[in-house]
């Protein structure tokens, strides 16, 4: 959301038509990427929800990470007579990635293992989301934790691979 706000500020503050056009192009260029809820990174997927999660899970396996659970919330909703659009969570990780974050702030353990969420919105658009490690570190008072950048890169790589055409 902060990125969107910055771009909007650029548009409002632009004095030259060319600069406004550049800012607008930048805004359009990030349309598949969004940060909605605090710390939640969201990316549009061109695939079905199931295929997106299958692709994400395959990337996790290829990197040798542990998969702890894959939860299908839509199936759970059916069990109680409710209807929910496709919504799945994958819980995954590895002590090599999570432990350094917990060394910076042990309370980060409440947010680990890592999770990825895939859902289909009311417009049938599929999204892939995950918690930004920098947000998690900040939440636990460890904004300068050196482990954050590695986690951020790993999650971004997994997500981009899952939504690639």
In short:
The protein is α+β, with helices and mostly antiparallel strands and 165 residues long.
Structure description:
With 165 residues, the protein is an alpha+beta fold. It has two domains: 1-31; 32-163, TATA-Binding Protein. The protein is built from seven helices and six strands. It has helices spanning 2-13, 17-29, 49-62, 73-79, 95-104, 133-139, 147-163, and strands at 33-35, 40-45, 66-72, 87-93, 114-120, 126-131. A six-stranded antiparallel beta sheet has the order 1-2-6-5-4-3. Strand 5 (114-120) and strand 6 (126-131) form a beta hairpin. Helix 1 packs antiparallel against helix 2, helix 3 (49-62) crosses helix 7 (147-163) and helix 5 packs across helix 7. The longest helix has 17 residues, at 147-163. The protein is globular and about 40 Å long. The protein starts with a helix and ends with a helix. Residues 1-31 have low confidence and may be disordered.
- β-strand amount: 15-25%
CATH class of the largest domain: Alpha Beta
- What is the strand tally? 6
* Number of separate structural domains: 2
Q: If you average the pLDDT, what whole number results?
A: 86
Number of helical stretches of at least 4 residues: 7
Global Rg: 18 Å
Could you give a short account of the major beta sheet? 6 strands, antiparallel
Report the span from N to C terminus.
25 Å
Q: What spatial form do the alpha-carbon principal axes imply?
A: globular
- Strand-pairing-aware structural class: alpha+beta
CATH topology of the largest domain: TATA-Binding Protein
**CATH architecture heading of the largest domain:** 2-Layer Sandwich
Order of helices and strands: HHEEHEHEHEEHH
Give unreliable regions as ranges: 1-31
Helix content: 40-55%
In the sheet with the most strands, the strands line up as 1-2-6-5-4-3
CATH superfamily label of the largest domain: TT1751-like domain
């Amino acid at each position: 959301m902060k990125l969107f706000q910055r771009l909007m500020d650029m548009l409002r503050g632009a004095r030259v038509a060319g600069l406004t056009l550049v800012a607008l192009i930048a805004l359009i260029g990030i349309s598949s990427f969004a940060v909605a809820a605090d710390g939640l990174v969201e990316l549009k997927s061109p695939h079905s929800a199931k295929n997106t999660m299958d692709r994400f899970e395959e990337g996790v396996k290829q990197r040798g990470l542990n998969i702890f659970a894959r939860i299908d919330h839509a199936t759970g909703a059916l069990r109680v007579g409710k209807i929910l659009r496709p919504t799945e969570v994958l819980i995954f990780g590895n002590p090599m990635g999570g432990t350094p974050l917990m060394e910076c702030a042990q309370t980060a353990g409440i947010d680990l293992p890592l999770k990825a969420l895939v859902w289909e919105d009311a417009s049938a658009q599929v999204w892939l989301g995950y918690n930004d490690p920098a947000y998690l570190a900040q939440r636990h008072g460890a904004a300068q934790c050196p482990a954050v950048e590695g986690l951020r890169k790993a999650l971004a790589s997994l997500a981009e691979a899952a939504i690639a055409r």
